[in-house]
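In this supplementary section we document a worked example of the pipeline. Step one takes a protein sequence of length 430 as its only input; no multiple sequence alignment statistics are reported here. Step two produces a three-dimensional model, which step three serialises into structure tokens for compact storage. The input and output of this example are shown verbatim.
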Amino acid sequence: MITDDIEFKSAGEIKIYQDSRLREALQYLNTKSPFYKRMFAEHGIDIKNIKCIEDLSSLPFTEKKDLQLHNDDFLCVPREKIVDYITTSGTLGDPVTFGCTEKDLQRLAYNEKKSFDCAGLVPGNIVQLMTTLDKRFMAGLAYFLGIRELGASVIRVGNGMPELQWDTISRLNPDTLMCVPSFILRLIEYAEQNGIDYRNSSVKRIIGIGEGLRNQDFSLNLLGNRIKEKWDVELFATYSSTEMGATFSECTYGCGGHVHPELIIVEIIGDDNLPVKDGETGEVVVTTLGVEGMPLLRFRTGDISSKVSEKCKCGRSSYRLTPLIGRKNNMLKLKGTTIYPPAINDVLDNTPYIVNYLVEVRNSFAGTDEVIVKAGVSVAQPFDMIKDLKDRFRSRIRVAPIVEIMSPDDIAKIINPGNNRKPVKFIDHR
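The serialised model returned by step three reads:
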């Protein structure tokens, strides 16, 4: 465990510390950032009046479209200081570029070291990394740097390829897998089909990225339960994004992602754009701390979550975030019920005969949301699959979307366009 960690200080000490770091960040932006210098001037903002986190509400938000339209103006250092370029998806079509300095990569390594430490990793652990380090992708690089910083061992296998994953497990005996949780089900399926005794393998821990494993009450969701029923391993969920340059990992108690106070300030904003009370749901808004290349102030992530402020059983006093409910822009109103795509995905990920799927939403003739689930099925079932799927949806989210059964190959052509790093499982036509 990292000693003298600010997360183990009292909530009051953490607050004083973050207020101080915020003032430093504002001074840096006012001096170095063309975008924020212009924003402060246009809105008549005197940063000397922003003395604590509560004062942030008087400042404008930064949105993804700002990064898209004014990408270069966010850079705070000469280009010769950039040692790594990273891209993330943009709302206007083209990707957004982030330039990282050597200091930023060290910060990434420190962040991931803290997150792995939170999940119980120590020097000597062996982590099989099932995410790409190429294609200008931040996450894979960050995980690699963090595992090295912690002093654990890393096996860079990359994503997909169940046969190679199991061959690597049998040869090198990793104790930890880091991957998208739904891929674990594919690993299990491959093992069962090929006589691999996965339950007695070296793997004891799985750290999930990109997908949720828990409900809002921290119980395992359908995906988490399905993995746990098949494979008695420790499950850890994480939340991260390129813009944050940070990862919040669960500890062994599994009660939310721990926020690192020295790296980021998190606000939860309601529909009125004002902070909500701790425990209330809203949009995650972040201000990065210690980023040299492209720091962000009050960046709207679009993710919906809430803060847990009471001290964790692990001893950390820093606040935690609950599992993400969904993305604000992806909220659906289906037959009068408010839902987010992850709730639909959860049902589909836990239907054994579905190979892959696509969820589409469009406006109906009545002006309401119409949700279509296109399910890829390779083997016909001895029952009405459409009725079965609708029953599964009603039991989980109370309402059922339109369901279409298609071949997995046809679905794959839609969800796996050649220039994307991730499958596109949700398309919004509204």
